[in-house]
């Protein structure tokens, strides 16, 4: 069985050994499992799942097996769809599982699904990690795969296995093998240091991309997730940068007088859409990354900012005060056919189109309270998912089911405040903090590689 292309594309140190189609005791049958999670409802009772430490023949591989299983448990728990069972309740050991599950033992502790695995050190130094997902009540192997990688890449294997389990049980693509770029903040409110940082979606593998000597704003991933575009100020002059994550090289896309707002890549990665302010009038432009030519999309006396392409590239959502207050509008990719889609009280901002194309997330401010909300592209079905003194900057997980945003507290009399990243399910449940070394704002979730 061939791994998805993105697994091989992203790292040359990771490859698949293939599917584990048959169980070790011969009683496993290949069949469509009956065990599934219906995530189309508003609230889903978490599925009890047993995830054993992965077995290893040596102390080193047993340690890796424990680490891999731990990351899988944490990933699935944070999704809100799974309830990993405490290991102290397990009756069958990881070693005994090599002969196959004793399903009656797992039913006794109410496990509906079981994950077992093994970590092995190969003669060439590579690590082989295999796993099997079992339907406890159906007594079926639902999926089984093995991966080769370098020992230092075990965490990524754990995320990939988490994605495979999530997809097999929910029918939707997982989002664990992804990264988040954001603005790391420190210092007082009136003297804030802001620098780019990147991490895995669970907060691991954290590193800074800039040194904080220049103010940075609004980082966004390219469709290949190998580049980031962001705004940085050299003195009072804003510049748009492209940061290559593979090489660490930065390229100035352009220096623009006045204010420059939130560049975002087009879905094909060949251009960015941006708002430029000229003497108090902000208009939306598309900049071709190959020719650097600018094409103007809006032309009004109003403030037009915060543009985001639909995944098809055919429509754009943005916000504008052309109706009196900042509201959300959509238009064709050539700037024609402008339609207002929000009509609520207050101010709307930072719209971002879902990777699935079916929803638009936004920030709304009304009567001193901020909200993170979603609506359909035609403006119907508006719902608020989170609220607070200041919640802003929604960004979608690549499967379009989870939203990341930042939540900031009021500053105290010393000018100090806290700003943290959170995720929340599209249904409005399961809000969870993503740990970061310092304060954090303006997250951008990486896409999945098709």
TrEMBL record:
- Tell me where it resides: Periplasm
- Coarse class of the primary localization is periplasm
Cell membrane recorded as keyword: no
Pfam families, A to Z: PD40, TolB_N
- InterPro entries assigned to the protein according to its UniProt record, in alphabetical order: 6-blade_b-propeller_TolB-like (IPR011042), TAT_signal (IPR006311), TAT_signal_bac_arc (IPR019546), Tol-Pal_TolB (IPR014167), TolB_N (IPR007195), WD40 (IPR011659)
* UniProt keyword annotations, A-Z: Cell cycle, Cell division, Periplasm, Signal
Query: What positions does the domain TolB N-terminal occupy?
Result: 35-142
GO (cellular component) term, any one = periplasmic space
User: Which PANTHER family would you find in this protein's record?
Assistant: PROTEIN TOLB (PTHR36842:SF1), PROTEIN TOLB HOMOLOG (PTHR36842)
Q: Which family does it belong to?
A: Belongs to the TolB family.
- Subunit field text: The Tol-Pal system is composed of five core proteins: the inner membrane proteins TolA, TolQ and TolR, the periplasmic protein TolB and the outer membrane protein Pal. They form a network linking the inner and outer membranes and the peptidoglycan layer.
Q: What does this protein do?
A: Part of the Tol-Pal system, which plays a role in outer membrane invagination during cell division and is important for maintaining outer membrane integrity.
Name this polypeptide is given: Tol-Pal system protein TolB
Q: Which gene is the coding source of this polypeptide chain?
A: tolB
